[in-house]
Design a protein that fits this description.
The protein has two domains: 31-236, TIM Barrel (Alpha-Beta Barrel); 276-369, no CATH class. The chain is built from 15 helices and 16 strands. It has helices spanning 42-48, 57-62, 66-71, 75-79, 91-96, 123-133, 151-177, 194-207, 223-235, 251-259, 269-275, 307-311, 314-322, 326-352, 356-369, and strands at residues 2-8, 11-18, 21-25, 27-30, 52-56, 84-88, 101-104, 107-111, 118-121, 137-139, 183-188, 211-214, 243-245, 264-267, 278-279, 286-287. The strands form four sheets. Strands 4-14-13-12-11-10-6-5 form an eight-stranded parallel beta sheet. Helix 7 (151-177) packs parallel to helix 8. The radius of gyration is 20 Å and the shape is globular.
Length: 371
């Protein structure tokens, strides 16, 4: 499933072989929570060059429902996307609904954020749901704990995550025997306790799933703590399997993850910031609503090759945003995703030429200092 091609320090390039084609790594995955990346079409995403995107099991389960998606021929046909899809387990979404959920040995009971109805996610039915979506990569159900969780609660989360991994793998094997081709990823938890991280990683390694995700990060901790535990957890994982960190989408976090040997990441940030009028540039993030851009007829980023930068000015994009035109979200979301995809592409090239450290330092120095 995964082949490493080149390394530069701990950073590496590779290729994943999935049911809907090859994925070059490192790979950034745009987030299509409800079966759509907000403001963009599947054709836009293919044009930018993405081989894989992420959709959300929790949201798709609640609306429109797994049975409807299965009747449509799977999520790929339903949303008109013929490349790969990773679906998360819904664990993080349930984690974020803390006042409305109960964690039990057999799974998680929660109330829908849509209509308040009661539901239960179990490790078994989460795998079944994702197989109905025909996901190319599916995630186990896990227990995610927030920053500053007491040790005993974090330890229980590790135990349950490991137990649920066993149940997930059993159901996944049954689905594979029925012809399902999706690849299961285990998730490492452990909060911010090194011994619990190690214990959770050992459970994930013992399960021998095709890939492993580093979970329990971006839950309120300071950036330096994120980096410490991301790197520590990555060091516990076998090099021959793809490594995935959820929820990172800034140049700083992406390049830091690559330096630690991470292969895959996703985030809603590029499209979310686009919808509020923010745009990535090589000189840092800019807020186009500011008056300083009113008469700025230059592109968002003069070194960017995307169609937005080729055809539209900062002044025009500022006008669209302030006039609350839908086109503002479309164009800025496109540019931001193109920018991050291009960053990853450049990083991939730098790794192949064994100059990643210099590339990363040079890029971040300009990005963080605004030129």
């Amino acid at each position: 499933m995964f082949r490493i091609e080149k390394t530069s320090g701990k950073a590496r390039t590779g290729t994943m072989t999935l049911p809907h084609g090859l994925v070059s790594t490192p790979a950034f995955m745009p987030v299509g929570t409800n079966g759509t990346v907000k403001a963009l079409t599947p054709e836009d995403l293919a044009e930018i060059g993405f081989d894989i995107l992420l959709s959300n099991t929790y949201h798709l389960y609640l609306r429109p429902g797994a049975e409807l998606i299965a009747q449509a021929g799977g999520l790929h046909r339903f949303m008109h996307w013929n490349k790969n899809i990773l679906t998360d387990s819904g664990g993080f979404q349930v984690f974020s609904l803390a006042p409305f959920r109960k964690i039990r040995e057999e799974g998680v009971e929660f109330r829908s954020h849509i209509d308040g109805s009661s539901h239960t996610l179990t490790p078994e039915n989460v795998v079944s749901l994702q197989s109905k979506f025909n996901s190319d990569i599916l995630m186990q159900l896990d227990v995610c704990s927030p920053w500053e969780t007491p040790y005993n609660r974090a330890e229980e989360a590790v135990r349950l995550t490991g137990y649920w991994l066993e149940k997930s793998k059993q159901t996944w094997r049954e689905k594979v025997s029925e012809g399902y081709e999706g690849k299961l990823f285990a998730i490492v938890q452990g909060n911010f306790y090194p011994d619990l991280r190690r214990r959770s990683a050992e459970l994930a390694l013992a399960a021998d799933t095709p890939g492993i995700a580093v979970g329990g990060l971006s839950v309120g901790e300071p950036p330096e703590v994120f980096a410490e535990f991301m790197n520590y957890t990555a060091s516990l994982l076998p090099p021959e399997k793809p490594r995935y960190v959820m929820g990172i989408g800034t140049p700083q976090y992406i390049l830091g993850a690559l330096a630690g040997g991470i292969d895959m990441f996703d985030c809603v940030l590029p499209t979310r910031t686009g919808r509020i009028g923010h745009a990535f540039t090589r000189d840092g993030l800019i807020a186009l609503k500011k008056n300083e851009y009113r008469l700025d007829f230059s592109p968002i980023d003069s070194e960017c090759g995307c169609k937005v930068c080729r055809n539209y000015s900062r002044a025009y994009l500022r006008h669209l945003f302030r006039a609350q035109e839908i086109l503002s979200s479309i164009l800025l979301s496109y540019h931001n995703l193109f920018f991050l995809q291009d960053l990853v592409k450049q990083a991939r090239q730098a790794i192949q030429e064994d100059r990643f450290s210099v590339f990363s330092q040079t890029f971040l120095q300009r990005y963080t200092q605004g030129g």
